[in-house]
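Fold these two proteins, one after the other.
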Amino acid sequence: MRTPFKHLTMTDRLRIEKYLRDGMKPREIAAILRVHISTVYREMQRGKYQRMDKDTLELKEAYSPDIADQRYRENLRNKGPGLKIGNDYELANYIEQTIIERDCSPAAAMGYAQNEGRQFKTKISVNTIYSYIHKGVFLRLTMADCPRRGKQKGKYQKVQRDKSARAPAGESIDNRPEEVRERKEFGHWEMDTIYSSKKGGAAALLTITERKTRKEIIISIPDRRAETIIQALDALEQRHGADRFRLIFRSITVDNGGEFSATDMIEASCMEDAARTKVYYCHAYHSWERGSNEVQNGMIRRKHPKGTDFREVTPEEIAATEEWMNNYPRRILGYRSSEMAYRDCLAELGIAV
């Protein structure tokens, strides 16, 4: 259950002072007050002052509820006049709650507002929201709550090809049609696996990303053997039906991992004597050649960090992660979600959802 949002009152501040004097930890205080632990830490910082210890005569840091309340009210006064967001508390609260509750970026928060048809008195840009977060305008929202925390994506480093690297098991990505590369045609996917450390066992996730819509499919698998991947794809084909599968999964781009080495079985239908898809293989050490899938894997890691033992992750948790990703507003899609774009593409093909 998520921690509810609320403003700390003077009574809360007096309680925090007492709890700190009693030696309680911030996490314990947060649980009692039913607020996020970061709220307690920020409150302790807000009310921090130096007091002299009676016994040692040394200055020590302490918390004052009066100082905290005074600074809180000063901040409130400073946040109104001069800021574009002004007194539009509805917008401020929506931005704050959406970013924290839905684990999204400021841009995605405005995308949610757009998709929900919400109207506010004030219109502000994403850059302005970031500026307000940096300045501490929001009561609880900080850069630590933003997915990328303001970091820019680093450049890919060129890696010298290993002459001993495994040769592609099938057709090279060099032969992939232009319409696939330019994302003009729906139905071309990228596929990879996410797995934990050795102590986490062999369990993994099979992740499949549609290039045009960024639709994500996440399948829990017990291991990363080639036959396991085939079983997962067979189950996916059976769920869609052979004809429908061929329309939706025209091609799949993978790396040269051993789990994707059974090219013929990936491409062949398990339901009839015919092809079901086309597989293309990236160059060795060129993960950016399936860049959409790499980005999506990064999103999955926000919910299931490195070291996660996927044997302990329930199907319901995997489904929740998949749903969160597919309903996430995408700037590249005009802030529509992948699910919206995907359904439109299915409708164009005459496929009922």
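Now the second one:
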Amino acid sequence: MPSRDLTVWTFFVASALSLAIVLSAFLVALLINQRRRIAMEREHARRMIAAQEDERSRVARELHDDALQRIAMIRHELDDASAHGNPEMARRISGVCGELDDLGTVLRTAAHQLHPAVVEKAGLRRALGALAEEFGRAAGLEVRVVVPPLDPALPSGVAVAAYRIAQEALRNARRHSGAGRADLVLEESGGTVTLVVADTGKGFDTTARGVDGGLGLIAMRQRAEAVGGRLGVRSRPGGGTTVTAVFPAVVS
């Protein structure tokens, strides 16, 4: 009898161990699959964003090298015609030249927004400073910038992602929050880079339906995740909005 009980007990223990091994293998496989799926989604997002940046760069070059050059040529020809025309014609041509100058400014700004070459040429620190000045000049949004020198220089993908997120967050502050002031802070510590954009606007309920898919939050989150970072938004009605993005200083 004791021998039989021992056999039953041994069989029970063996069965339990086998089940535990199967469950462990299943959980490991599930975890590996989940990590693989996340990696594939991140790579897909990275490629999509890279393709978008390439297209933006192409359009920006066409605006700068074609449209703006044509405007400059037309402007030059009109100046010549004005010099040889009567006063009334010269006055009308002067008005057209003014319109062309305004159009050139609009296209130049659009080209810069499509592809911020300053990030590549001057680095993220100066690019964010120029972005703040642009919002202050064009949108009346006072932006206080706190960006220390970054050492070592950030990877290109992280720098562009940080710039785009800052640009979108400030655009949201201008369009939706009614804020007159915003803070833009970039810090580097412990192998990570943290970008914070905080405004003093009306804020919103982050738990409201549809909020997570609006205000450019999806695009900002995808940009952060594509370079191995993460993005968070903190806001409440009447309490302003804070966008925080954390990036690895080195992208593997």
